[in-house]
């Protein structure tokens, strides 16, 4: 008998999607060749409890505590993610400027090594009194021995320009561009390999897996976004079949 709770699981095309708490589920899934995920993290409103962050977040979803969604502390997630990856796997962890240092410390402490700091230029900026916010960051990490061949596209630079919200249709407040996640996946894995996203959200990483010919494991504890992710992955699979 298992002592963890999977509320529901769907296999859609090359992806297995789990509804439940990633900290409970991660020890029981197949080890992945690559980690690629955007964990939820605390935000700050700059001390103004009535401020809405750039108009992206509804007032009832956000308050001055920095809580937009259920946040797992970096130190609690880093170890389980490390153990869920195969030896010599790469891992991409997204964060903003307020959280990148805490994320870096936690994942290094878990056993990862640091490759590089990647930057996503969202083109459209979030309002801020101390410089407009148009950047998010990705820790590019590895477990074990680094691949001496490097990434698949060695001409890739650290900065990626993809317009935030350009194709966002799900309403998820932190949805990332599929193109960005696909770029990471295609650079650090081979077709048919397994990609892990422990914080699946609306399913962007899993859609990128379908489009790039990779297998995926996605975990999401919010049923609303789990259902959205399932539909997006199904739509991506249907498009592949129709092509």
Could you explain the architecture of this structure?
- The protein is α/β, with parallel strands linked by helices and 243 residues long.
- It has a single domain, classed as Vaccinia Virus protein VP39 (Rossmann fold, 3-Layer(aba) Sandwich), CATH 3.40.50.150.
- Helix content is 27%, strand content 28%.
- The protein is built from six helices and nine strands; from the N terminus they run ββαβαβαβββαβαβα.
- A nine-stranded mixed sheet has the order 1-2-9-8-3-4-6-5-7, sandwiched between helices.
- Helix 2 (74-83) crosses helix 3 (100-110) and helix 5 (204-212) packs parallel to helix 6 (223-242).
- The longest helix has 20 residues, at 223-242.
- The radius of gyration is 17 Å and the shape is globular.
- The N and C termini lie far apart (43 Å).
SSE map:
Blueprint: E1 6-12, E2 15-20, H1 22-25, E3 32-37, H2 74-83, E4 85-95, H3 100-110, E5 113-126, E6 133-142, E7 159-161, H4 178-188, E8 194-197, H5 204-212, E9 215-220, H6 223-242
Annotation keywords:
alpha/beta, Rossmann fold, 6 helices, 9 strands, 27% helix
Concise summary:
The protein has 243 residues and is an alpha/beta fold.
Unreliable spans are 45-69
The assigned CATH architecture is 3-Layer(aba) Sandwich
β-sheet strand percentage: 25-35%
- Alpha-carbon distance between the two ends: 43 Å
Query: Helical residue percent?
Result: 25-40%
CA-based gyration radius: 17 Å
The mean pLDDT is: 85
**Number of beta-strand segments:** 9
Cα shape: globular
| Structural class by secondary-structure content | alpha/beta
Query: For the report, how would you describe the main beta sheet?
Result: 9 strands, mixed
Which fold name fills CATH's third level, the topology?
Rossmann fold
What is the count of DSSP helices, taking H or I runs of 4+ residues?
6
CATH hierarchy, class:
Alpha Beta
How would you classify the quaternary structure?
Answer: single chain
Indicate how many domains the architecture comprises: 1
